[in-house]
Amino acid sequence: MRSALRRTPGSLLLGALVLVFAFGLPAGVAAAAPAPAAVRTVSLDQVAAGAHLAPQAGPTPASPTTTNINQQQQQADAAKTKRKAVVAVVAIVLLVIVYYGHRARYRHKVKVKNLQNAKG
Questions:
Q1: pLDDT at 41
Q2: Three-class SS of residue 104?
Q3: Within a 10 A sphere around the Cβ of 41, how many other Cβ atoms?
Q4: Which of 5-19, 44-58, 64-78, 82-96 has the highest mean pLDDT?
Q5: Cα–Cα distance between 57 and 70 in angstroms, integer?
Q6: Interatomic CA distance for residues 95 and 5, integer angstroms
Q7: Helical packing angle, 71-119 and 10-31, nearest 10°
């Protein structure tokens, strides 16, 4: 099993991609969610008069004095995404270190073996 991983340098790239997709995509998908549509309430008298059929002006743009109910949740999601990105980068760096360490150890073994064969 180890020799198969050592022989395929693409396995490191595959592992890195798996980590990026595992940690990166949920945050991107959550950020791309559309905003909910505005809902207008109409009384029964307005329905009887046909006022509900009249075109209404769109909702007024949010002024700076309004509060965002989801602001704390968005901040928490942003912090969680940052932590996941940091963990993914650290994991990738550790994978690279392990890969090159195994590769150097293998090359050293081959070199020592070749030296012993040359002496004998």
A1: 72
A2: helix
A3: 6
A4: 82-96
A5: 26
A6: 12
A7: 180
Report the alpha-carbon distance of residue 116 to residue 119 in Å, rounded.
5
Number of helices and strands in the chain (H, E): 4, 0
Residue 25: Cβ within 10 Å count: 10
Non-local CB neighbours of 105 within 8 Å, separated by 6+ positions: none
**Main-chain dihedrals φ then ψ at residue 13, nearest 5 degrees:** -65, -40
What is the total residue count of the chain? 120
pTM here is 0.42
Element (H, E) at 97: helix 71-119
Q: What is the pLDDT of residue 84?
A: 97
**pLDDT, tens digit (0-9, with 9 covering 90-100), for 20-37:** 667 765 555 445 556 666
Q: What are the distances in angstroms from CA 98 to CA 6, 12, 23, 39?
A: 11, 10, 21, 56
Which amino acid appears at position 84 of this protein?
Answer: K
